[in-house]
Specification:
The chain has helices spanning about 1-10, 25-40, 45, 50-55, 90-100, 120-135, 150-160, 175-180, 185-200, 215-230, 255-265, and strands at about 60-65, 70, 80, 105-110, 140-145, 165, 205-210, 235-240, 270-275. By secondary structure, it is of the alpha/beta class. The longest helix is centred in the middle third of the chain and has 14 residues, at about 120-135.
């Protein structure tokens, strides 16, 4: 009987600290008009990011390359999974042109996983950075990369074009990695971040989501592990379920708990720690280059 009752009860309402205001402002309105007019593909709009108005107001936007179908099927992610389309070799120029049209000061580039490709998409990644640099010489860049299965030849292509920040997300604690990220490995992600720093990337960055059933001790362990591989910037945010097919939210983390993690991160020596319910990977990204 309890099971039947639970099935008809409405979902737990989000706490008040997760409510966001609709984006406004002159800069936001201008960029929204350009995105709609030229059908520009930003994660900000397609992902309905709660920080879109704030980021666009700062001249920051996030773009996803290599299509919108991922070869992996992570339990937290709203991106479609399946057989991706063929690579669009004109994409680097298209992204660079979008950044120019939008007059973006700091661009974050991310992508789906392309385990179907021999180079796992790393060539398009490098060409995109080069195209942006050619067309937008004053725009700074963050690349939020997949793990490329830990293949150093593919990672070297990113290192060679030397973005201001290179980011790779842990996403969750070690115990939950198999459930949350399925095809990814916790140690491999740490090794990617270690390799990037050892090969001379000035700013490395990673992020985790909370509310998937992790403990405080496990979160603190991730922070220690990231500090050990000399990561510079950490983002910590609340996981929100993209659809009923995805992993459920186990807990809404309080602002006080996020503040505690921020303090711990600062004590561990990270250059920047962004910790809060609405924090996403590219939140305040323009500040992370300093």
């Amino acid at each position: 009987m309890n099971t039947v009752l639970e099935s008809v009860l409405p979902p737990t309402p989000k706490p008040k600290w997760l409510r966001v205001k609709l984006p406004t402002g002159k800069k936001y309105t201008e960029l929204r008009g350009l995105v709609d007019k030229y059908k520009l593909n930003t994660i900000c709009t397609s992902g309905s990011c709660p920080n879109m108005g704030e980021c666009w107001g700062e001249g920051t936007a996030t773009f996803m390359i290599l299509g919108n179908i991922c070869t992996r099927s992570c339990g937290f992610c709203g991106v479609k999974t399946g057989r991706p389309e063929t690579v669009d070799w004109d994409e680097p120029e298209k992204v660079a042109r979008s950044i120019k049209l939008m007059n973006i000061k700091h661009a974050v580039i991310t992508s789906v996983d392309r385990d179907d490709l021999k180079d796992m998409g790393s060539i398009i990644w490098a060409e995109t950075v080069k195209a942006i640099r050619r067309m937008n010489p004053n725009t700074t860049l963050e690349t939020l990369i997949p793990d490329f299965q830990g293949n150093t030849r593919n990672l070297d292509r990113i290192i060679e074009v030397n973005p201001e920040v290179v980011s790779h997300n842990m996403e969750t604690v070690k115990r939950l990695t198999r459930e949350v990220r399925i095809q990814a490995k916790y140690e491999k992600s740490l090794e990617v971040l270690r390799y990037l720093k050892e090969q001379g990337i000035k700013r490395t960055k990673s992020g985790i989501m909370l509310g998937l059933g992790e403990t405080e001790e496990e979160v603190i362990q991730v922070l220690h592990d990231l500090a050990a591989v000399k990561v510079d910037i950490v983002t910590i945010g609340q996981y929100l379920q993209p659809s009923k097919k995805h992993l459920p939210v186990k807990e809404f983390i309080t602002p006080e708990q996020f503040a505690k993690y921020e303090q711990i991160g600062k004590e561990l020596g990270f250059r920047h720690v962004e910790s809060g319910a609405l924090v996403r990977s590219s939140y305040h990204a323009e500040k992370h280059i300093y």
